[in-house]
Amino acid sequence: MSDSGSRSSELSGGTITALVCALVLIAAFVWNTLDTIMPAQERWAALTTFGVLALGYTLLGSATVYDRLGFTVRRDPRALLVLLALVPALYASYSAAVREFTVSGLLTAIAYVALPALLFRQAQGRSIPTLTDLVAALYLLLSLAIGLVPTLTLPRLDGQVSLFAFITAPLLLVLLAMRGWRGLGFTWFLTKRDLGTALLVAAVLGVGIAPLALVLGVAPPPFADTNALNLLVQMVLLYFLIALPAELLFRGFIQRGITRYAEYVLRQEQQRTSESRLRRNAPALLGIGLTALVFGLSQLPGSANPPATLVLATLTGVGYGLVYLRTEKVTASAVAHALVLWVVQMLGAL
């Protein structure tokens, strides 16, 4: 009876926290688009599409919801098909509302969910990452980086986020739940130690990287409005729309995948020539380094100074990777990620 009550309490607490996060995110989106002039139909379409994705995204931050979803979609493939069908359905409804619907766009939306789903399903039941997992992740990353998906934004005018970039986070979570991937660290419960680690790394990167990014011309556009309320809204949007999706993909999936595979390889060795601390930490260090490099490469499209972008983005990736290694939570590494972006854009506005 106590176990049942504990699970119920965990589900309730995680769900309430997720709903609060969703409401905060939706409120920030509404506030940031109030001054954007657009037809009522487009505004409503953007708000409803954003709201649906925000709810699906944040609710999966409850470990109980994530685990139950994984159990359901593994047991009944029809449940997975229904969830995946929401992506082309959202594209069709939103693009039609803003008069940008195309058949090729719809086909692209279908491929965007179908190909990774098929690749992840090939590895279902495997306890270690596989090559098909990596291909699925790279497909999602490249689709966004080089524009293989429609460039629709929410809202259409003065877009706050790419539709497909926002779709990627809940899509990846659903696919990883189907895959049986545990231990992502996507949770809304952060301890003081988690936040302290994130703040420390953000401070180091903010002091060391932010000025260089501005001097070298690779910083993101500065904030247009620096009043206190707008800065708070921008922090919320940076965290949920940029930092956390990136951390889910790079740290929660790629870094953790590389680390787990390297640990598996070490365990399979018949003869160990050394049991040094460096050797024991090698999988984690390899995961951090390779993921940081991939993160740096992903920032190159459209960069005005590719060498500087690669170096600075890779260094920040190392920092975020260390936060993830220390806390095992992508929501913590996303705090550092969002703060660094916020500081850079804030300094650029001064």
Helix coverage percent: over 70%
Give the total of beta strands: 2
The residue-averaged pLDDT reads: 88
Shape: globular
- Structural domains: how many: 2
Structural class: mainly alpha
Largest sheet: 2 strands, antiparallel
* Neighbour order of strands in the largest sheet: 1-2
Report strand %: under 5%
SS summary, helix count? 13
Q: Mind telling me the C-alpha Rg?
A: 20 Å
Question: How far is the N terminus from the C terminus?
Answer: 58 Å
Keywords:
single chain, 350 residues, 2 strands
Protein model, in words:
The chain is mostly helical and 350 residues long. It has two domains: 2-179, no CATH class; 192-349, no CATH class. It contains 13 helices and two strands, in the order ααααααββααααααα. The protein has helices spanning 2-32, 40-59, 63-75, 77-97, 103-122, 131-145, 163-179, 192-208, 210-215, 228-268, 277-298, 306-327, 330-349; strands at 153-154, 161-162. The chain has a two-stranded antiparallel sheet. The longest helix is centred in the last third of the chain and has 41 residues, at 228-268. The chain is globular. It starts with a helix and ends with a helix. The model is unreliable at 1-13 (pLDDT under 50).
